[in-house]
Sequence to fold (365 residues):
Amino acid sequence: MSESAASDHVHATMRIVLVCATGVLQFGLSLHPLLTLDYRHRSLAVAAFVALACVPAVCCWWVLRRRPLPAAVAAAGTAVVLVASFCATAAVAPDQRFQAPDWSFGLVGWHLLLLLLDRVRVLVTVLAVHLAASAVLFLSAGVPDRAALGAAGATAFSAINVQLAVIVVTRVLSRQSHEATAVAEERDRLAARVVTAQQWERGQRSVFAGQLGLTLPLLAGLADGELDPRDGDTRRRCALAATQLRRLFAENDEVPDPLVHEVTACVDTAERRGVDVSFAISGAAVPVPSQVRHELTGPVVTALSAARTRARVSVLRTDEEIRIAVVADAGADDMVTAPTGQVAVEYGAYGEYLRMETRWRKRHG
Fold:
């Protein structure tokens, strides 16, 4: 779950609570004074009550489906609530404002919470405007006495505090939900990294096991005396095994240019055998998948391990393809390559020299 989805979930849950709270407050607390107390304009108070009741009823269409209120609905609902609040307040006698007949003052804030819960700045602004308008209407009737002023202040303070508390609780829950979501996403990323690392480790073990499976019979033959180290075929097999192992180790190195690093490892191994190798690189480094690198350098390993005294290696990289060519004083019979659909391999004998080339063409799109 993303952070925005977590915030939407908190707001959707709080709106369901607010719908229930608004219904209870309006019909449980506000209906009784509307029916039992005297008003200057009862029809105006009743119309305001009905209009306020329609707002949560309309919002239920989205709230019960846990969907955010459309901006147009929120704006229209806010306008209806403010107009209904003014009408309900105007229906009350001036000396009864902020008292029991003025039921709309505390109720309107809950309607505004329902409509603007996910628009905190607008919500606080509208609540402030509603409070200021109510205070102006209260003071317009004349300077109240100390008791009336204290009672009005206490009523306004308690109503606004409860509504601001709902805003703060919603903000805290949203922040905690964001933090929990971030922690869960980080945990999922770590779990994915662990799984990837485990898969990579198993793959490396499989590769090493396969390589050692080819090398161990050679070592056993040398140890048992079945193979003669002076024999040319044995020496070529040893050179091939050494070059393959050196390239395998190079595959695990963290370097900016893995392809050239692996080819360099093969060249180093050949030079340690006394082969004079010239190495040329053309073109900038480009990303190459590890499997493609393995297929590109596989024939290079074979060609360099078969070289007797000298070889030339060249790496050509363009935006379209990568080529690795080897010219060595070896026979074409020494080349044994497995067919692949990604890398093309060409080789042939030119006198006493073997020329081999691997080529990989990028697939765009």
Strands lie at 276-282, 310-317, 321-328, 344-350, 353-361. The chain has a mean pLDDT of 79. The radius of gyration is 41 Å. The CA atoms of residues 222 and 228 lie 7 Å apart.
